[in-house]
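Hi V.,

You were right to ask for the full record rather than a summary. Here it is.
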Amino acid sequence: MNNRKQPKLIIVIPCYNEQEVLPITAPMFLEKINSLINQKLISSDSKIMFVNDGSKDNTWNIIQDLAKSNDKYIGITQSRNRGHQSTVLAGLMEAKDMCDITISIDCDGQDDINAMDEMVKEYLNGCDVVYGVRNDRETDTAFKKNTAQAFYKILNFLGAEVVYNHADYRLLSSRFLNEFANFEEVNIFLRGMVPLVGFKSTSVYYKREERIAGESKYPLSKMLGLAIDGITSLSIKPIRIITSIGVIVSLISFILMIWAVIQYFKGDVISGWSSTVVILTFLGGIQILSIGLVGEYIGKIYMESKNRPRYIISERTYEK
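Predicted structure:
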């Protein structure tokens, strides 16, 4: 093993409207952190940090009650709902100066918490980043399985470096987080930003289960939004693809123009509106798509230029 001492761990758990599942999974996290302490893999002052994303239900009250019931539980809450990625980031940035390592994980019980043992061991062996990676998708519907696979393949094709079948279950060292804090963009896509930092990394594989209770907070519309954010935040390859399409279409149009002139002088002019409409519709669609894509990037620039805070912590269950 590496000569690293027993690290202080903070498990960072984003929560949004999780009043149904939190009372079930919170004791599971407590049991796991105590198990890691008993195995002497982490220090006895390790904590479990719940990060409330401006929930509209009783989530924050439950977190406060948990913090009162056991000093292993701590919690922070955002001033309003800002989304999953911002919430995970808030927890990581809050925790980075309080511990040696963090493990971020959703609170729905789908990710195997027993994979944390191997994550910590990999840290002790010298890794600063340990990705939790699903080894199958047996619990997914056929639609979700296929769309998820397409999601990762498209992201990689378009230049966003991501780990296949990895979401936001990962171990990060404080050394990593101190460098990651220098990444100040407002458009956050953590699973694509983490590989950009570097440091030694590895993966731990696990089987993902079905949600224990409550409803998924990531419907198809949010997944599509996350995919668009990931691509446009990390790569300009879509712009280059559109440019290439524009060049190809322009060349084809130029060749057709020469052909039309030759046919005109030969007196072999074919009249017809169908072909004209099809060509104009195709070119119009390409133009609208191109403008929309460029607009997406301009919108990202607009949001970045405002330099608004990425998260605002309004309350804590502890004194900082």
